[in-house]
Amino acid sequence: MSLLPTPFPREVFELALRVSPSFAALCDAVSRDDEFLRTTLAGVIKTDEFTRRIWDIYERCGAQEGRHRMELGVLRSDYMLDEPSGLPLQVEVNTVSTSFMALSTRVGEMHRHTISRAGLVSHYAPRAAHDGSDDDDTAGDDDAAVHDDDFALWPNLPLNRALESAADTLAAGWRAMGEDDASILFVVQPHERNVFDQRLIAQRLWEAHGVRCVRATLKEIDQLATVDSVTKRLRLGNVPCSVVYYRAGYAPTDYPGEEEWRARELLERSGAVKSPSAAMHLAGCKKIQQALAQPGALERFVKDAGEMAEMRKVFAGLYAMDGAAAADAVRLGLGDPRGYVLKPQREGGGNNLYGDELTAALRTYDPDASPGEPGDLSAYILMQRIFPPANRTLCLRRGELAELETLSELGVYGGYLRVGETVVLNEVGGHLLRTKAATSDEGGVAAGYAVLDSPLLY
C-alpha cells in the first residue's frame, strides 16, 4: 500500500465515475446479443482455448435461451490518465472476479487516519468553508482530530464505499432470488492469498443484511455441489445457494483439470444467479472491447447521443489482430513499439507484451496463417499505450518502505442488477487507485506489480 494518497485530477476522476454505469449497462447489453458475441469472438474462440471453453459452456447451457433471467455484476472499469490528452483512457472493463473493494476502502480510511493523526489535514485535505455554527469543535483548526462525520468536509479525499457497495449489490441479487434460507457461494482459489478482501465482504453481508456466505474452490464444488433436476436449485453439500459470486475462474490456471470445468458448467446450469454469467464473462473479453471502440459499434447498444459522446471520450486506440485490419495493426505496432501494447484475452496482470516482446510477436505475423497456426495473432488485440503523469509515492511492500517514481491506474466499481427486462441497480460502487513503479509495465497488485492507493483530488 501507499502511505499517503496520490494526486489525481478531479475532472478526470469525475468523468470516469460518470461513464462507468454506462459501461456496466453496455456489458450486459453485449452479453445478451448472441450474434454480436458470436461474430466478434469467432477468431478468438478458434485460437484461445480458455475463451473457447467458456464459450462452450455458454452454448451447452442453452446460450441466450438457457440464461438466468437475472444478471448480477460487481464490475470494475479501469482507466489511466493520458497526459497528452488529459483524459482517463479506458484500460479494460472487468466483468469477472473484480478485487480489492474491501482493501481499497480500508486503505482510504487509513490515509484519512494518518493525515489527521500526523497533523497534515491543512496540507492534504483542506476542508470546505466552515458554516459558522458553534457546535463544531474543530472550527478554526485545520489540523485538529478528524472524526467520521467530518470526512464529508474533505472535498479532495473522496469517500470510498466500494466495500459496502460490493456487499449491498450481492445482497440485492440474493433478495431478488427470494430464497431466505439460501447462502451466497463465494468461488475462490485454493490457498487464497487475497482472503481478507473477500472475508470483509462476507462480514458486511452478514452484519448489514443477515446473509450467510460459504466458500469453495471449483474442485470442491465438483465434489460437493448438486443441482436439483427439477427445480435447478444449487446446493453445496446441504447448504442451498441462490447466488454464485466468482472470485476465481478468470484465468486458465484456475482450471488445472476437468473437475474445475465440470464445476463451472454445473454452476452455469444451476438456478442460482451468477456474478457473472458465462455470457457476461465473455462480454469482458479484450476482443469485445476492441470491437466496441470501432466507428458505429456503440450505436448498436447505446441510443443516447450524449451518453455515447461521453463514452467515446475514454476510448483508447484499439486495433484488431484478425481479418483484413490485422496487417495495418502490425505495421502500426512495428512502426512505434513503445507506443502500443499487445494484449491477450486474459485477466489478472502479467500477460501483456511490450517493447521487444511486442516486436518479436508482431514479426511472426503471417497474413495467410489460419486461426491457431503459427503466424496468426487473432488471440490478441493491439492497444494504444497510455502515458500517465508520474508522481513520488511512499510505498510499503512486505514491511519495506520505498520512495518511488510512480504511475497510477484508477478503477471505478459498479453494482449492477437486471431482473428480467428491468435494470434494478446500476450505480457507481466506489473506486480503486493502484500505483506502480514508473519502470513497471504491468499493474496488478496481487500479481506483485503495484500497491493499493487512494486519490487526492486537485
Largest sheet: 6 strands, antiparallel
The CATH topology is Rossmann fold
- Rg computed from alpha carbons, rounded to a whole number of angstroms: 23 Å
The total strand number stands at 17
* CATH architecture descriptor: 3-Layer(aba) Sandwich
Instruction: Compute the number of helices.
Output: 15
Percent range of helical residues: 25-40%
List low-confidence stretches.
Answer: 128-149
> Quick one: overall form?
globular
CATH superfamily: Glutathione synthase, substrate-binding domain superfamily, eukaryotic
Strand content of the residues, in percent?
15-25%
Mean of residue pLDDT?
A: 91
Q: How many domains, as an integer?
A: 1
Structural class: alpha+beta
Distance between the termini: 21 Å
What is the CATH domain class? Alpha Beta
Question: Multimeric state of these chains?
Answer: single chain
Cofactor: Mg(2+)
Pathway: Sulfur metabolism; glutathione biosynthesis; glutathione from L-cysteine and L-glutamate: step 2/2
EC number: 6.3.2.3
Catalytic activity: gamma-L-glutamyl-L-cysteine + glycine + ATP = glutathione + ADP + phosphate + H(+)
Concise description?
The protein has about 450 residues and is α+β, with helices and mostly antiparallel strands.
Protein traits:
458 residues, Rossmann fold, 6-stranded mixed beta sheet
Overall description:
- With 458 residues, the protein is an alpha+beta fold.
- It has a single domain, classed as 3-Layer(aba) Sandwich (Rossmann fold), CATH 3.40.50.
- 34% of the residues lie in helices and 25% in strands.
- It contains 15 helices and 17 strands.
- The strands form 4 sheets. Strands 2, 3, 13, 14, 15 and 16 form a 6-stranded antiparallel beta sheet that branches. Strands 4, 5, 6, 7, 8 and 9 form a 6-stranded mixed beta sheet that branches.
- A hairpin with a 2-residue loop joins β7 (234-236) and β8 (239-246).
- α4 (49-60) packs parallel to α10, α5 packs antiparallel against α7 (162-177) and α7 (162-177) crosses α8 (195-209).
- The longest helix has 22 residues, at 10-31.
- The chain is globular.
